[in-house]
Write a structure and sequence with these properties.
Structural class: mainly alpha
Number of domains: 2
Shape: elongated
Strand content: under 5%
Number of helices: 3
Largest sheet: none
Distance between the termini: 46 Å
Helix content: 25-40%
Pfam family, one: CopG_antitoxin
CATH class of the largest domain: Mainly Alpha
Number of strands: 0
CATH architecture of the largest domain: Orthogonal Bundle
CATH topology of the largest domain: Arc Repressor Mutant
Amino acid sequence: MSDTKLKPLPPLHSDEDAERFIEEADLTECDPAQFKPMTFRRLGQADRMTFELSPDLVRKLSAKAKQDGVAEGDILRRLLEDHLEDFEFGAAAPGRNL
């Protein structure tokens, strides 16, 4: 492994910026630790749900979303998806296991 210092990723503010970066950059020179998984929402194909959260939980949720650079709804959706990933409809619930 060389001692070459890896370059930080430039800010990409548009699709055009991203396309230009991919075309022109040598990604082997970029620090891969800066990459993070992304998910994309397709609007118009999802049901909506409304519920209340305590002010403390809203503050924590907002701080986490800001830290991760995503919307609060994305954090909630990801938590629900992770929690319900192995859930089977019709399976008998042995008790209240959240």
